[in-house]
Amino acid sequence: MGQYRFHRRKGQAKVVFVAWRDLQFAKGRFALMGAVIVLITLLVGLLSGLTAGLGQRNISAITSLPADKIAFQAPSGGQDLSYSDSTVTEQQWKMWSKAPGVESAEPLGITTTKATAGDKSTGVSVFGVKPNSRLAPQGGKITGSAVVMSTAAAADLGVQAGDSLTLAGRQLKVTAVADNAHFSHTPVIWTSLDLWQKTTPPTSTDHGPTATVIALSTTSEADTAATDHQAGTRTVSTEDSLSAIGSYTSENGSLQLMRGFLFAISALVIGAFFTVWTIQRSGDVAVLKALGASTANLLKDALGQAVVLLVGGTLIGTGIAAALGALVAGSAVPFLLTPATVLSPAVVIIILGALGAALSIRRITSVDPLTALGSAR
Amino acid sequence: MSLALSDITLTYPDGDTRLTALDQVSLDVPQGSLAAVVGPSGSGKSSLLAVAATLITPDAGTVTIDGQNTAGLTRGELTGLRRHKIGIVFQQPNLLPSLTAAEQLQVMTQIDGRDPRTARDRAMELLHAVGLADQAGRRPHQLSGGQRQRVNIARALMNDPTVLLVDEPTSALDHERGGAVLDLITRLTHQQATATIVVTHDRTHLTAVDQIAEVHDGRVHLTATNR
């Protein structure tokens, strides 16, 4: 017993002969499935670009801040952090600036209002900073009557450096146009903190100057919990603070949910196709098994076929999505075209599709070669 | 002995009892000889072929192929044995619809883990032997029933098997083409020196076989031997 033993040969895994011939022979069927993969990839690719583009218009002013943490007014009654509800006092940012491990603690006021220049007006986010603050681009040019505008705000109002605009009833001078920062879907104008306080509704606090949050640059020595406790604030990383932008959380959550469903649908559709395909060719599989094909090789063959279809369809879909994205990227459509927004959905679709196909073709293992004897094909 | 079935007993579950398909069947087929297994439907012919093909493990008895007792071999080892030592000619051609006649043969080298493109010459040699060299590029739907059956036979010989098992090769063919197919199998058995079993219900073309085994109710009676 055991005299007859078999060894794997070197090229065993390379050959996808029958699978390749099937792809060529059943062109119509595979073209149909390929078209479905192309369309799903296109949809996911466009949705990813739009999600990232919309996100950018919500958060870019915060993610570009030279700060690693943001301190909010500690919310009461178990409420979540919110940029729109937070108000911090001068006492609090002074306390933070003296805390160990804190390199800088700068107040940042945020409010949304209307700016007018000539006959044009637009909604803007006013970011109030201290003079010479690092939080604003070209912060040295900001004074009580001079502002720095983001490129989008300047474009919307049709102004450039040296022009004037009206902000909350005050005539101001534009000293510079820099950065394409947005917050909550409005372009940003950087002003002095004093001016910001005049544009924002009065708060209930009577502790002197206020701001919305404190932008912190910290080292590893910073004990944020202790300083939060002392100052009555709650501090999170800049990235985590994005969930305190209400419009971003709800919008991004909905779009990500749609993307997730599309990924799941693509895996299901691909799995369903290969389930039907495997059932249809179970007779062929029985014959090949009876002739001596190993189940492992048949599985490799079938999975190779699925991967060829997936990679081909996904590449075409991604290419079309990238081309369409490039067309609309410069327009009013907020589409962000980056390797992350284009390639990562393609990779996810290939992985999930291959998983769906793998689950479908596993039924090859249960095909009985005995059925090839006496069967009519 | 290239193929030896010794005291094979095979039963199938049948409600609360078991049905005996083969009852202590023994059959020896030497290299280069042809044994015909005949009998009525349900007599156990197909079960005998399935046991010889290692597709069913018998309840008792031994199957020896090219001197190798198959008892105790793992499923993977039995698959390898079929790949290298056994050629099967199916009752219906069972050709893969996406492959040409030549590729039906070349796929046997893929099954063996080799690049099928390297086996083109051997495939053409066998297609020539069965008279189909000029049909090498045709797919199954472009071939006649007799041509498909000849591709089926050529495919079974692609890996130079020791044992050739042929299941009802004439059932879908008319008298003339059935005779031609059995003549071809006889000729190839001698040329390729295989131990061949042909299961058939058709006794009209059995003049050239070396032995005839009659199966009745799972038992075998050798009724004629030409050697």
Note down, in words, how this protein is organized.
Chain B: It comes from Streptomyces parvulus. Chain B: GO terms for molecular function: ATP binding; ATP hydrolysis activity; transmembrane transporter activity. Chain B: Keywords: ATP-binding, Nucleotide-binding, Transport. The complex is a heterodimer of chains A (377) and B (227). Chain A folds into two domains: 17-58 and 249-372, no CATH class; 66-237, no CATH class. In chain A, the strands form two sheets. A six-stranded mixed barrel of chain A has the order 3-4-9-5-7-6, surrounded by four helices. In chain A, 47% of the residues lie in helices and 19% in strands. By secondary structure, chain A is of the alpha+beta class. In chain A, strand 3 and strand 4 (120-129) form a beta hairpin. In chain A, helix 2 (27-63) crosses helix 9, helix 2 (27-63) crosses helix 10 (339-361) and helix 7 (246-280) packs parallel to helix 10. Chain A starts with 16 loop residues before the first helix and ends in a 16-residue tail after the last helix. Chain B is 31% helix and 29% strand. A six-stranded mixed β-sheet of chain B has the order 6-7-8-3-9-10. In chain B, strands 2-1-4-5 form a four-stranded antiparallel β-sheet. Chain B has a single domain, classed as Rossmann fold, CATH 3.40.50.300. In chain B, helix 4 packs across helix 5 (145-156). Chain B is built from six helices and ten strands, in the order βββαββαβαααβαβββ. Chain B has helices at 45-52, 75-85, 101-111, 120-129, 145-156, 175-192, and strands at 3-14, 17-29, 34-38, 60-65, 68-69, 86-89, 163-167, 195-200, 211-216, 219-225. The radius of gyration of chain B is 17 Å and the shape is globular. Chain B starts with a strand and ends with a strand. Classes of the chains: A alpha+beta (377), B alpha/beta (227). The A-B interface holds A 1-6, 8-9, 11-12, 14-15, 17-18, 21-22, 24-26, 283-284, 287-294, 297, 369-370, 372-377 and B 46, 49-50, 53, 55-56, 68-69, 71-73, 76-77, 79-86, 88, 90-99, 103, 106-108, 110-116, 139, 155, 159, 167-168.
